[in-house]
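Build the 3D complex.
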Amino acid sequence: MSNEMAGLTGAYAVDALTGPERAEFEHHLAECGECAQEVRELREAAGMLGVAAAEEPPAELKGRVLHEIAHTRQEPPTAQPVPIGTRKARATSRLATRLAVAASVVGIGLAAVFGVAAWQSQQELDQAQQRIEQAGERGAEMARLLHAPDARIMHASEGGAVATAIVSAELGKVVFMSEHMPAAPEDKVHQLWAINEQGATSMGVLTGGDVPVTADMPGDTTKLGVTTEPAGGSQQPTTDPFMLLSLRA
Amino acid sequence: MDDGPQSAEPPLGWAGQPQPAPDARALLVEVAKGNEAAFEQLYELIVRPVFGLVRRLLRDAAQSEEVTQEVLVEVWRTATHYRPEKGGAMTWVLTLAHRRAVDRVRAEQSAADREAKVGSRSGARAFDEVSESVLGRLEQRQVRRCMSTLTELQRESVLLTYYRGYTYREAAELVGSPTATVKTRLRDGLIRLRDCLGVG
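Done.
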C-alpha cells in the first residue's frame, strides 16, 4: 500500500493522477516526507521541460495582467490555498481521503471557529478530523456538500472581511463562512440572503464570531448577500448588502 | 517589450546553471510583500515559459492567453504561500501553471469524451505529433540531450503526461502498455531527467 503510493510521485509531479487519486496521494504526502522531497525534485526536473517550451505571448497581455494585479488582494500567508483539484473527489474514494479533503476545506471555517489554521501535517490532519467530528452535523453536512460533483468555491472580500462559500446547485445547499467580519452594531444582526432576479430569500441570521452557516439555496440563486438588519432578522432586506458573492463563474 | 526579430529562443540561458533564473526566487519573495515593481520584473522572467507550457497543453491561442493571465494573477495572489526553502521560484510558478492548464483541459472534456478519444486513432496521432514536433522543438540542448537518455517508453510517458495533460492511465492506453508499467516508467523517466539535469 505505502509502496504503491510511493510509486505515484512521478505521476503526481506532472499532474497525471485522476482527481480521487490525486486527493488520496496528497493525503499520503502529508505523512511521507521522503515522498514530498521526491515530488519537489521531480517537479524541478519537469519544470525544465516547461522552460524549454517557452514561447512569446501577445504583447498586450502584460498590461492586462498588471492592471488586474493592481486590483487583486493577496492571500494572507497563513491561509492554506484550497486544493482546487481535489474538490471533485468521488464518493468512491477512501473514507480517510474524504475526511482529508473535507478537513482541508472545512478547515477554513473551522479555523474561524476554533482559532486554528488549516492542517498541514498528519498531526494537524488528525486534529482537523477530530474537529469535524466535534462539529457534528454541520461538519458532516459540509463534507457532503464538498463532495457534490458540482461543488464550487467562491470568494469575496470587503474591507478586511473575507467571505467564502461552497455551493452546490445540485444539492441546493451552500456553506457560508466569513473571516474578520465586523460585529453587527448593538440591536442589529447580519443576515444572509440568496438573491435572484425576483428578489431576496433569507438564508438565516449570522450568529457572529465568523461561525460557518449551512443553508438551503433556491436553484435560481445568482448571488449571496449579507445585510445588516434589526435584531431577530427581517422577512426582506431593509438595507443594501455590504457584501456580495456572485455565483456566476 | 519589443524583442526584435521573433525568436523562438527562451530568454533564459541555463548552460551550466541548474537554476535558470537565479533572482526569480528573490523577486517572488518580494512579490509576497505586495511589491508590484518586483512583480513586473518577475513577469518578464516567467511569462514566456508559462505561456509556452499552457499553449502546449491547451492548443487554443485565445484560451491559452486567458489561462496564462489567470496563472500570472494567481502568482501574485498566492505568492504569500511560496516557501523559498522548498524549491525554486520557476518550478513553483510552472507547477501552478501546469496544474491549472491540466485542470482546464480535463474540465472541458467529459470522461466519456476522453475515453473515446484515447481509444481512437486521433489519440495515436496525438502521440506522433508530440514525439515529432514537441521533441523536435526542444531547443535547449541540455533538455534534449537528457531526454535522449530516457528509454522510449519513459520518454513517451513523460511527454504525454507533461505536455499533453494526459493521466498516466490515458497515457498507458495510448502507448498500449499496462498502467502499472507506465506509472513506473514515468517516475523512472523523471528521475533520470532530474539526475541528468542536475536539479533537485
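Residues 110-200 of chain B form a domain with the Arc Repressor Mutant, subunit A fold (CATH 1.10.10.10).
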